Amino acid sequence: MPSPSTPATAKPLSAPQKALIKLGLKRDIDLALHLPLRYEDETRIVKLRDVREGDTAQIEATVTACEVTLRPRRQLLVTVDDGSDTCVMRFFSFYPSHQKALAVGNRIRARGEVRGGFMGLTMMHPSFKPAGGHLAEALTPVYSTVAGLAQAYLRRAVVNGLNHADLSETLPPGIAWPDPRGAWSLRDALQFLHHPTPDVSLAALEDRSHPAWVRLKCEELLAQQLSQLTAKRERDLLRAPALKPRTQGLHGQLLAALPFALTQAQQRVGREIAQDLARQVPMHRLLQGDVGAGKTVVAALAAMVAIDAGWQCALMAPTEILATQHFAKLVGWLQPLGVKVAWLIGSQKKKERAAMLALVESGEAALVVGTHAVIQEHVKFKNLGLAVIDEQHRFGVAQRLALRGKMQAPGMEPHMLMMTATPIPRTLAMSYYADLDVSVIDELPPGRTPIVTRVVSDHRRAEVVSRIGAQLQEGRQVYWVCPLIEESEALDLTNATQTHAELSQALSGVLVGLLHSRMPVAEKKAVMDLFTSGQMGVLVSTTVIEVGVDVPNASLMVIEHAERFGLSQLHQLRGRVGRGAAASACVLLYGTPEGGRLSETARERLRAMVETNDGFEIARRDLEIRGPGEFLGARQSGAPLLRFADLETDAQLLDWARALAPLMLDRHPQLAERHIGRWLGGKSEYLKA
Ligand code: ADP
Ligand code: MG
Fold this sequence. Notes:
Layout: H1 15-22, H2 28-32, E1 38-40, E2 56-69, E3 75-81, E4 86-91, H3 96-101, E5 107-115, E6 121-124, E7 127-130, E8 140-142, H4 151-164, H5 186-194, H6 202-206, H7 211-237, H8 250-257, H9 264-277, E9 284-289, H10 295-308, E10 312-316, H11 320-334, E11 341-344, H12 350-362, E12 367-370, E13 384-389, H13 397-404, E14 415-420, H14 426-432, E15 437-441, E16 452-457, H15 461-473, E17 477-481, H16 489-506, E18 512-515, H17 521-532, E19 538-541, E20 554-559, H18 567-574, E21 585-590, H19 600-611, H20 615-632, H21 634-637, H22 651-667, H23 669-680
Parallel strand pairs: 4-6, 9-14, 9-15, 10-12, 10-13, 11-12, 13-14, 16-21, 17-19, 17-20, 18-19, 20-21
Antiparallel strand pairs: 1-8, 2-3, 2-5, 3-4, 5-6, 5-7
Helix pairs in contact: 5-7, 7-22, 7-23, 8-10, 9-10, 19-20, 22-23
This protein binds adenosine-5'-diphosphate and magnesium ion.
Residues 295-296, 390, 548 line the site of magnesium ion.
């Protein structure tokens, strides 16, 4: 079989070859490491009597009936008898050749999932061939695949990869092993997992507790730890400007001017950041803090240190609203101190944009706030020393790299501070952000009362509206969030527009605003201004307000069709209220699909929201419900997702890999390099983000 990475001059790639590349299976070793999702047992013939419902079984039996029926729809019904029981096989698509092969009296071998039911055992579309013939000697692997790539082709490709790949050991000899059953060699483990002998326990294979699986999971985790540690060490060789706070500098001035005192937690993370900034090594720190914990001011104080030292600072946020709000807040804090702040957003007028770009390039603007517009190619900084990314999980790896690249000096990088309100559970942090330093604000500013959350059926909407009236009476403000309808932005909008009309009518005499992502920026800004200044009582919006918006007087949030939102998203939204001293509430309105019931996961999410306000707990449950792949998204973490290891069940293996990685890099650097190359191949540049 030709290698899929044939040079361009050779024959064009066949469809399955292209599919292999799409799956990332380019090298022999990639194929060898493409392990089965599950197995099928074609090593034996079972008796129908012994089959349990749901089993995939291989049987040999004699056809006793074969007929085409037209009800409830056209299908071929074949009854077979193996002497122990009978089974009905159904085929909805079939050819005359099927009928011939399945003629009464023929003996066949069939494989398929067996279901029980009214008519006894049935198989839908089993595969079949004449009875007899040899039985497989090993379990048959089933691989994850894509359209256009048949299992049979993939199996051959894997065998080929397995035969040609270099499977020599990369783990140093004599290391302690986390599995008391001892270590399998890589070669044996791979051979076994691709073609397990039939005597093995299918359970141990399926739950991946078999020693061969353990060996592979250890390898995978080690590769991940090694690559992250390598990235960290490479970064440690780079230089960044050492930024030290000046006495009587801007840092102290801002601190003195703030209308509040920092919490203990803010002070602590402030010190952690200051220590990093003072070093000549680029900071790479993740600042975690629940919504409303006060991350912005921590970032602003860090910016003051950079500016004091004569460097520029950039703050990048994922949405225009958020960038605008940061800009307003920072100007409010910094203008009195004589610090010039520029802002850059996509929808800016040309003239304003040009003026801003000039301020940034000349260095006159010490602080630059903006959206992705900040990392556009034509944006030139005079001397970027500190880059802050707010809601970092909303940005991709390439964007983070681009911002870092705005430092002009060769061999140097700016300090990076990444902020997130989506806390990353410990095992995930250790695994995916192993190369990041983490600071946590684990304390909310004083005087906040916890948000009370209620789950309410949409049938009781009228009650909710009257509750809004009561809040407004007390001089409070209200958010009403309409869901994002994935398939259609237009529908999305209709929904929000209708709700806006409905509320405007129900709450006469109150200014009800509407905010959605398609509005021109100036209009969005006008609406936000009215809401921020308190003139607008109710703000109906689509999820554009999701991140970071800060209006302390808002004390009630209604989320419509809350069942359509993810858990972390609900928590972020809810964090928009409870920012002031007033008792705040969040109402999760849910709709049920035409008399149906909410799905179990939707109910689980809503329950979690009622039960806890703690962002870490929410994140833990979210992870439980969604699994790490979805929770992080490869795009967001930059680190390759684990394919085999499971952080919950394999925490012990992760500890082992974490301990081994530095030793291996120090004592066996060549083995480490081979190990990373083998497992991560061409993906390693991503790890530097
Ligand atoms: P987040 O961490 O979600 O980004 P913000 O930085 O937007 O939170 O802060 C939420 C609100 O709390 C803001 O109005 C901010 O000015 C205020 N705040 C921040 N720190 C404190 C503090 N130590 N005491 C009182 N209010 C604070
Ligand atoms: Mg924020």
